[in-house]
Each structure stands twice: as C-alpha cells, then as structure tokens.
Design a protein that fits this description.
By secondary structure, the chain is an alpha+beta fold. The chain is about 50% helix and about 20% strand. β1 and β2 form a beta hairpin. α6 runs antiparallel to α7, α7 runs antiparallel to α8 and α11 runs antiparallel to α12. The termini are far apart.
C-alpha cells in the first residue's frame, strides 16, 4: 500500500464526520448564499485542495454561471458566462458524469477566461454533476489538489457532497420562490401545495442516492468509521421523514384522502404509534410511560391515519423534550367520548401560541436561531386527521419551560 493510499484511509473518518456536519447544517440553513459558501468551503477541506466552485444552470440563457467559488467575489464570477458545448464544466453537465484532469492547460476544454478574470491558475481539476431526480442542476468543481492528484475516491466523495448540495440549493430556491410569492400576495394555497409536491418528489431520488451510498459504506466499515456512517444514515432518514410529512400535508389538503374506519381499542392505536417512534426516543434516552385503563375504550376510526396523527404528536414531544425525560401516553373516558393525551416535560408553549402552533409551517422559534428542526407541519397534519374523523385536538401548557400536554377527543363506540 502506497503512502497516498494510507493517507486516504486515515482521512476517511474525518471526511465522513465532515459530511455528517455538512448534512446537519444544510438541513437547517435556508439562505442560498450561506449554503453556497458552506458547500465550497467543505469541498475544499474534504478534498484537501486550493479551491472549489459551484456552477449552476441558467435555463433562460442555456449556459452555466458561477454561483460561488472559494475566496472569490460571487458578483464578479457571475459575470463570466460558461458555455455548455465547449468547456469542462459544460461537458460534465451534458454527460452527467465526473471528470478528472491532471494537467488543465493541456485539455482543450479548459476555459482560461475564468482564470484570467479572477487571476487564479487552474493546475488540475475534478468536477462532478449536481443531480436532482432525472436532471442536472449544476456542477461542483474541486481545483488544485495539494501534494497529490485527484483520485476516484475523491470523485466519489465529491459526488456525495454534490448530492447534498443539489438538494439544499434546490430546496432553498423553492422555499425562497414560495416566500416571495406569498409576500406579494399573488399566489394561493395551490402554490404552497404545488411546492410541497414538487419538493418532496424532486428530493427523493438524490436522498435515495445518499441512503444507498451510506448503506454500502456501513457494510464495509467498523469501529469509529461505522459510527460516522450511522450519523450520515440518521441524518438522511430524518430528511426522509420530513419528505413524508410534506406528502401527508398534500394528501390532507387534497380530495384524495380516503378514510377506512374500523372499531378498535384506543390503547392499541397508541401502542402502534409508539412502536414506530420508540427507537427515536431511545436514542435520546427518553422513556415512554403508558397510562392505560384496564378495560379497552373502543373508537371507530381509520387506524393508520389515527396512528399517523399520534406519531406526529409523539415526534413533536420527543423533539422538544430534554434527554432522559418521561413522555406519558394516556387514555381515559370522558362521557360518551374517549380522551387520549401525550404529556411531555419539554420547552412548553406560551399562552398566546397555543392556537398558532397548529398553523402550517409555524414554529415558536425564530427561523434564524432554530435548535429543534422540523418543518412545522406535524401538528397541522395531526389536527387535520383527527378533525376529519369527527374528533377534537388541542394543546395545554402552563407556559414556557413547563412542558405541554396534547389532547385528542374521539367519539366512543
């Protein structure tokens, strides 16, 4: 084994750790400019090179343009049009495959205008496409490898980074477009639904790619490296759950939702919902405490959709509760109705926010200083699913820092 190969093996745990960190930050950052700079900085560090750049496709002019580059002025870079038919980036974009160039000056596709414009000499280069579903949105390049040449391992690493980047950039773009449309007051709820549908569908393929790569890595790794791969998988699975939430909201607001009521014990629905979420609670060392009666209380509901509603309620409780705390799930009768509840000891809800938390995309935390993540639609979905079955859903809390109790009232059979 060569010195270079040994160096590659030694650097892989750090590289996987940085990919995990990148995934977490990208999931919580909505500013496109911040995303672009973060991606180029991370790519430069991961591949131990002098610079990295992102070129995005301009659909109106059918060309690529520089959206960001390490240590360069984005506005000045954006002035440079990069042709698709006669440049390295254009070749990567057209063929949807990576390219490694060891001596850039000798390649006829090298586009020297960029180097001259920003006074930066390109010696060697690695470029990979940025895929979203069945199309390519841009190119991610790493420039001038330090003390070595770019390898196929570098290409695979940069490809995973590019998949992260494409998802984050596309998501930020969609969100910004939606926000602008809503601010202008020219778009209806249909636009929001279209955004949710588009975003959830577009992101599933690159997310599947990340999950696939991570699963393959997990099979071939052990020890500390395996722990890093598990972090990558966890982050990707969290993103997949967000996509599922988006799909559920679209379903709730459409005419396609079908209810299939069945007579079932309320305790069984709650136990079913807890099964789907207990592993997440276990990772936070939280205890699910059951307060079930001796006799079953029967309701006539759609089992899957009611369990989904309680899964969202439980997920909310887990997210906003401290590690090691108890979350209580209970059932009792209330006249001719069945009362179920989920009680946590988390951050609580201010009195003036007890109704607003059920609004779509509403979150108590300011968007720029969020700690808990999520889209802010889990409770919206739960409320819609409960009320669609003739039930009631509300929250109670004594205030910030005093925990919350979410209660569901359903007709008793």
């Amino acid at each position: 084994m060569t010195t270079g190969q040994l160096r590659d093996l030694e650097s892989r745990p750090h590289q996987l750790k940085r990919l995990v960190e990148l995934s977490v930050i990208l999931n919580s950052t909505l500013d496109p400019d911040v995303l672009l700079q973060l991606i180029t900085a991370t790519a430069t560090e991961l591949l131990d090179c002098e610079a990295a750049s992102i070129l995005l496709y301009d659909e109106k002019n059918s060309r690529l343009f520089f959206a960001a580059a390490t240590g360069s002025n984005p506005a000045k870079l954006a002035e440079i049009p990069v042709p698709i038919d006669s440049s390295l980036a254009g070749t990567i974009f057209r063929t949807n495959s990576h390219i490694i160039i060891h001596i850039a000056e000798q390649d006829p596709r090298h586009y020297p205008i960029v180097s001259e414009h920003i006074k930066f000499k390109v010696k060697n280069l690695l470029g990979v496409p940025m895929p979203i579903k069945d199309r390519t949105v841009g190119v991610l390049e790493a420039i001038n490898k330090r003390n070595n040449l770019f390898t196929e391992h570098d290409a695979a690493l940069l490809a995973v980074t590019a998949a992260h980047a494409a998802i984050a950039i596309n998501n930020a773009r969609l969100l910004r477009k939606t926000q602008r449309a809503l601010e202008r007051g020219k778009e209806s709820n249909e636009l929001k639904n279209n955004f949710l549908t588009l975003a959830s569908h577009e992101l599933r393929t690159p997310l599947g790619l990340i999950l696939g790569y991570s699963s393959m890595l997990k099979e071939d790794t052990q020890g500390e490296l395996s722990d890093h791969v598990n972090h990558v998988l966890t982050a990707a699975q969290q993103m997949r759950s967000i996509l599922d939430e988006m799909n559920n909201l679209v379903m709730l607001k459409s005419d396609e939702m079908m209810l299939r009521p069945q007579k079932v014990a309320m305790e069984d629905i709650l136990a079913y919902a807890c099964e789907g979420i207990k592993e997440i609670a276990a990772t936070r060392k939280q205890n699910l405490v059951y307060a079930f009666p001796e006799e079953p209380y029967i309701v006539n509901v759609d089992i899957d959709k009611t369990a989904l509603a309680f899964g969202n309620i439980l997920g909310n409780a887990i997210r906003f509760s401290p590690e090691g705390s108890d979350i209580t799930i209970g059932v009792t009768k209330d006249g001719d109705q069945v009362l179920s509840w989920v009680q946590d000891h988390g951050i609580g809800i201010p009195p003036d926010k007890l109704q607003k938390i059920f609004e779509e995309f509403y979150q108590i935390e300011p968007p720029n200083t969020r700690h808990y993540g999520g889209l802010g639609i889990g409770l919206t979905i739960a409320k819609g699913l409960i009320e669609a079955q003739g039930g009631k859903f509300w929250a109670e809390s004594e205030g910030a820092g005093k925990g919350s109790t979410f209660k569901v009232l359903l007709p008793r059979v």
